[in-house]
């Protein structure tokens, strides 16, 4: 318990639209060990971004956290007051977003936006705030920071803007950084710079990172632990090496088989059949069952996320005593297509 | 920025020339001989000839226009047919009254419109949002002269709170400003609402919240300045409508402004005065829009580079 | 070569004018594509890769004359495409189709799939009017959509299905060449794999030729026979897929490949970090366009434009590179002038350059 900076347990976030409840995050459980990087990976609609926003309680109407707990250094956040959340945001837990082009306010200079963090959390005035802002820009590798500090976001390239976002996020040396697809909108050579930068700063400040991404390459490269999400649920939680070497959940296996690789030759891609179910057609049992090549009768009931002998978790009946199907080898490629 | 201002001012030249041609044509587009119209149907031949002579109506059209233009550039619009006083004197006395009325009305529209728009946007779909939007619909639909008459009826005649006519004291200013500014307030409120709603959903608002910024600061510092950018354009156009609307409002409240001067002069067929007053209003409108463009630039840094 | 050349592009240039000044005159040009030549053989898949702003999408659009090219020659099956009249070009488009990244934006939201498909056939006068509906149903099946979905509107489909509709529309007119402009970039990997497999199957069954424009090198390696690497409007390297990936010769291609995160935690690649950002295509660097970011750059690179040519004598297939030092670097005779390890330090050195160009921009 004490080794984790963040423990999320059975978190549920729903959106209420025209009398319907859309369960975007439906019982998500994971933890982030201190100083480590947790990857949350999943495709669109898996609820990974909503999970991230829920941690900081930045979910807006008509969305709402409807259940579960978020424990940050032992402090419960789901019941925390808004004023306490404001102290935490940008100070103890920071967040960076996918779109560097639109995530900075276009009518304020880089310096004004950085200074604001210092003013809110450390009460610094303009002079001291500017000095610290320049230091931060220098820290994230922005050239001529004393000039850049007075520039507006439109004067910067996408990569530079994401550096500024990181500078703002790290201004108050947070203990936890949530990065929501931080490099998805960037070109690969810039992505490499940004990921390296986050890694270096993580070591320097000693913070923990939650890296939300759809890119398994980014996961392999940056994360220590991985939570794989599908349709609002964590289907597998594992250390990164186990996940890639010994993936358990058929969805994880399907993802890896679908991925075209640039580093090795592949004969054929083995896609996952079908589509992600629409919110109003969500199966009541295992969410992945309709697309799963191994699905059996018992999959009509929702399996739990259960810990295996190596300490990793998987939400799949195949790994339980209740399994009623035939002996399964999830790597059997014939079967999965 | 300086380049931009110079370019905008240079662009004004053709606009102003166009305005001057239109205003000049006023007299000549009216059917019949302008001199006869001014003098009246039954005027003696000699009077008509005298007017023709004085206005140079016998010269070729381009000479007339040239004279009109060069004189207008020196703020000389000729003399009034009615009382032989230079047109500029008439205008000078009244221009500032109309300007005051327009400025006060703009401020009224702006303050009321922005407040209503922000409240509506922040409390979207709430009771106050719905109520405000219904009220603004009324504000938009009421012609300002009718609203003026109603205001006089209620607040001057029945309640006796404000003076029904005139200009200068506070109790004379309130009603005309409300009459003239309400429609503008309604437009600005609706514009601010939609603009704010648009901005509130932007990524940078989420960034601000993620920094731990207070909600009030998020709205007034981070959202409003962005939301104002489209509103500024509307305010500029609105000012033009106010100038036009002042013609009616001034008549209703018997204010001695430019609008009333124009109406009186039209009724008395005093063409030089009409020309001068219309030209002054048009030029004012053009310059207000220049100011709006410049402030739009200053608010919206992104336009600068393109 | 014995294979038939389907498309030949020679000296293609695409300059977009920039208006400015008091009178809105053309003050400069964005040199989006600047003198590129390549060919595509019948039945093969050629990919154009590069980062945003390299000109890869512009190339695709220029071939189809969606934007009229500034200069150059495009020959399709012996016909000079750029010399065709408008009506001739319209006919030609039944042979050359394009699929876009966002199929939703390119599908009319008020038309059902059937209407869209039949309209495409009608415009190109494909088949008898009576047969068109039957043909539309067949195409639906070919691209893996249900027949009963044919009367639905685009918004009733998921992203992957919409991309299938985009493919169906392209197939409706019996094209020979399909230009896929980032056609699978917006899709989730599981769906992307479905669409990639579909494209490969269609190629086998119908003998299609693809010009694949993409930034995802995993996708590109998987689907291509040959690859064209572009940087700032120029081709820097072009050759057989295997040779490009296993033996990249241009420093830019090397950096690009090394920058992609490998989905294997045990195999983290040695990374080459490039300095700063891609320069502006308005005033591209002189000589080799990559010299501002290249760790191997010399004075020669700053002045002389390298020619795209076959350099590696040991390789028999196609592998051309536009770099003065490709072989010297490969054989270890030419060393980098600076280390490319620390992202922050590298940027500081480059910093001055970027700041200056910005200032020049401001002064203008």
Cα-to-Cα separation, first versus last residue of chain C = 51 Å
Separation, N- and C-terminal Cα atoms of chain A: 41 Å
**By helix and strand content of chain A, what is the structural category?**
alpha/beta
Q: What structural class do the secondary elements of chain C suggest?
A: alpha/beta
- Runs of chain C in which pLDDT lies below 50 for 5 or more consecutive residues are 345-364
CATH topology call of the largest domain in chain C? Rossmann fold
Gyration radius of chain A (Cα, Å) is: 21 Å
In DSSP terms, counting alpha (H) and pi (I) runs of 4 or more, how many helices of chain A? Answer: 11
| Low-pLDDT runs of chain A | none
Most residues in contact: chain pair: A-C, 57 and 58 residues
Morphology call of chain A:
globular
Strand order of the largest sheet of chain C: 6-7-8-3-9-10-12-11
Order of strands, widest sheet of chain A: 6-7-8-3-9-10-12-11
GO molecular function (chain C): ATP binding
Family (chain C): Belongs to the ABC transporter superfamily.
InterPro entries (chain C): AAA+_ATPase, ABC_transp_ATP-bind, ABC_transporter-like_ATP-bd, ABC_transporter-like_CS, Oligopep_ABC_C, P-loop_NTPase
Domain ABC transporter (chain C): 7-257
Sum up the structure in keywords.
heterotrimer; A: 337 residues; alpha/beta; eight-stranded mixed β-sheet; four-stranded antiparallel β-sheet; C: 364 residues; Rossmann fold; 2 domains; globular; cell membrane (chain A); Peptide/nickel transport system ATP-binding protein (chain A); translocase (chain A); Oligopep_ABC_C (chain A)
Explain this structure to me?
The complex is a heterotrimer of chains A (337), B (306) and C (364). Chain A has 337 residues and is of the alpha/beta class. Helices cover 31% and strands 23% of the residues of chain A. Chain A has an 8-stranded mixed sheet with strand order 6-7-8-3-9-10-12-11, with helices on both faces. Chain A has a 4-stranded antiparallel sheet with strand order 2-1-4-5. The longest helix of chain A has 18 residues, at 188-205. Chain B has 12 helices and no strands. Chain B has helices at 2-29, 34-39, 45-55, 61-73, 87-122, 127-141, 144-158, 170-200, 203-210, 215-252, 258-267, 271-299. By secondary structure, chain C is an alpha/beta fold. Helices cover 35% and strands 22% of the residues of chain C. The model of chain C is unreliable at 345-364 (pLDDT under 50). Chains in contact: A-B, A-C. Chain A binds chain B through residues 56, 58, 85-91, 94-95, 97, 99, 102-108, 116-117, 120-121, 152, 154-155, 165, 168, and chain B through 202-204, 206-214, 222, 225-226, 229, 299-302, 305.
């Amino acid at each position: 318990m004490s080794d984790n900076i963040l423990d999320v347990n059975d978190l549920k976030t729903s959106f209420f639209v025209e009398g319907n409840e859309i369960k975007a995050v439906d019982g998500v459980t994971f933890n982030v060990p201190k100083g480590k990087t947790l990857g949350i990976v999943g495709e669109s609609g898996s609820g990974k971004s909503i999970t991230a926003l829920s941690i900081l309680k930045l979910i807006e109407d008509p969305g709402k956290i409807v259940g579960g707990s978020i424990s940050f250094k032992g402090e419960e956040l789901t019941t925390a007051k808004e004023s306490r959340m404001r102290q935490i945001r940008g100070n103890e837990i920071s967040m960076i977003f996918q779109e560097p082009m639109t995530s900075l306010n276009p009518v304020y200079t880089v310096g004004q936006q950085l200074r604001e963090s210092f003013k809110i959390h450390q009460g610094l005035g303009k002079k001291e705030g500017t000095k610290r802002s320049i230091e931060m820009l220098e820290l994230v590798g922005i050239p001529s920071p004393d000039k850049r500090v007075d520039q507006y976001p439109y004067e910067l390239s996408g990569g530079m803007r994401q550096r500024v976002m990181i500078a703002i996020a790290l201004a108050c040396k947070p203990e936890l950084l949530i990065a929501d697809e931080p490099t998805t909108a960037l070109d690969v050579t810039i992505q490499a710079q940004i990921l390296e930068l986050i890694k270096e700063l993580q070591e320097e400040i000693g913070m923990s990172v939650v890296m939300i991404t759809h890119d398994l390459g980014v996961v392999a490269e940056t994360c220590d632990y991985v939570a794989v999400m599908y349709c609002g649920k964590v289907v597998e939680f594992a250390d990164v090496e186990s996940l890639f070497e010994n993936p358990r959940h058929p969805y994880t296996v399907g993802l890896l088989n679908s991925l075209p690789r640039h580093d090795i030759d592949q004969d054929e891609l083995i896609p996952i059949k079908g589509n992600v179910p629409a919110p109003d057609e969500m199966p009541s049992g295992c969410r992945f069952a309709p697309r799963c090549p191994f699905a059996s009768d018992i999959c009509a009931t929702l399996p739990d996320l259960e810990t295996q002998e190596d300490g990793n978790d998987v939400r799949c009946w195949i790994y339980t005593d209740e399994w009623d199907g035939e002996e399964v080898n999830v790597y059997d490629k014939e079967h999965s297509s | 920025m300086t380049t931009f201002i110079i370019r905008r001012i240079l662009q004004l030249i053709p606009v102003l020339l166009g305005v001057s041609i239109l205003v000049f044509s006023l007299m000549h587009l009216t059917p019949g001989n302008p001199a006869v119209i001014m003098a009246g149907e039954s005027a003696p031949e000699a009077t008509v000839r005298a007017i023709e002579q004085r206005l140079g109506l016998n010269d070729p059209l381009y000479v007339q226009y040239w004279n009109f233009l060069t004189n207008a550039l020196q703020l000389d619009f000729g003399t009034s047919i009615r009382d032989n006083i230079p047109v500029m004197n008439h205008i000078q006395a009244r221009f500032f009254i109309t300007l005051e009325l327009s400025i006060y009305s703009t401020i009224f529209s702006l303050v009321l419109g922005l407040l209503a728009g922000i409240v509506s946007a922040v409390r979207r779909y709430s009771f106050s949002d719905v109520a405000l939007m219904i009220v603004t619909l009324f504000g938009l639909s009421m012609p300002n002269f009718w609203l003026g008459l109603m205001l006089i009826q209620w607040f001057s005649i029945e309640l006796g709170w404000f003076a029904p006519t005139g200009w200068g004291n506070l109790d004379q200013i309130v009603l005309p400003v409300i009459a003239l500014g309400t429609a503008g307030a309604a437009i600005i409120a609706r514009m601010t609402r939609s603009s704010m709603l648009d901005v509130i959903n932007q990524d940078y608002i989420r960034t601000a919240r993620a920094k731990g910024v207070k909600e009030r600061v998020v709205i007034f510092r981070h959202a409003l300045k962005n939301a104002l950018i489209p509103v500024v354009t509307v305010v500029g156009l609105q000012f033009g409508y106010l100038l036009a609307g002042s013609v009616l409002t001034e008549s209703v409240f018997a204010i001695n402004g430019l609008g009333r001067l124009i109406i009186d002069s039209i009724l008395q067929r005093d063409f030089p005065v009409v020309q001068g007053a219309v030209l002054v209003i048009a030029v004012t409108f053009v310059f207000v829009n220049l100011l709006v463009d410049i402030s739009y630039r200053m608010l919206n840094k992104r336009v600068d580079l393109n | 070569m014995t294979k038939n050349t389907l498309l030949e592009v020679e000296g293609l240039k695409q300059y977009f004018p920039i208006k400015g000044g008091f009178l809105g005159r053309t003050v400069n040009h964005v040199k989006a594509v600047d003198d590129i030549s390549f060919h595509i053989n019948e039945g093969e898949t050629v990919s154009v890769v590069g980062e945003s702003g390299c000109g890869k999408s512009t190339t695709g659009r220029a071939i189809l004359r969606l934007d009229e090219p500034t200069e150059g020659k495009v020959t399709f099956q012996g016909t000079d495409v750029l010399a065709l009249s408008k009506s001739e070009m319209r006919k030609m488009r039944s042979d050359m189709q394009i699929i876009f990244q966002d199929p939703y934006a390119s599908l009319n939201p008020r038309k059902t799939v059937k209407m869209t498909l039949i309209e495409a056939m009608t415009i190109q006068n494909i088949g008898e009017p009576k047969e068109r509906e039957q043909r539309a149903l067949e195409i639906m099946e070919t691209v893996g959509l249900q027949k009963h979905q044919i009367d639905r509107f685009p918004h009733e489909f998921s992203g992957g299905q919409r991309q299938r509709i985009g493919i169906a529309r392209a197939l409706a007119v019996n094209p020979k060449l399909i230009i896929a402009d980032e056609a699978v970039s917006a899709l989730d990997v599981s769906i992307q794999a479905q669409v990639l497999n579909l494209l490969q199957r269609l190629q086998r069954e119908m003998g299609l030729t693809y010009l694949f424009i993409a930034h995802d090198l995993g996708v590109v390696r998987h689907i291509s026979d040959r690859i064209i690497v572009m940087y700032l409007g120029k081709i820097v390297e072009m050759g057989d897929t295997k040779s490009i990936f296993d033996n990249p010769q241009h420093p830019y291609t090397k950096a690009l490949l090394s920058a992609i995160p490998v989905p294997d935690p045990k195999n983290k690649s040695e990374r080459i970090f490039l300095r700063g950002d891609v320069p502006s295509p308005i005033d591209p660097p002189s000589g080799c366009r990559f010299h501002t970011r290249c760790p191997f750059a010399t004075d020669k690179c700053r002045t002389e434009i390298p020619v795209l040519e076959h350099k590696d004598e040991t390789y028999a297939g196609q592998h051309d590179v536009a770099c003065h030092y490709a072989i010297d670097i490969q054989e270890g005779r030419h060393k980098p002038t600076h280390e490319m390890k620390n992202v922050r330090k590298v940027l500081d050195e480059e910093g001055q350059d970027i700041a200056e160009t910005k200032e020049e921009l401001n002064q203008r």
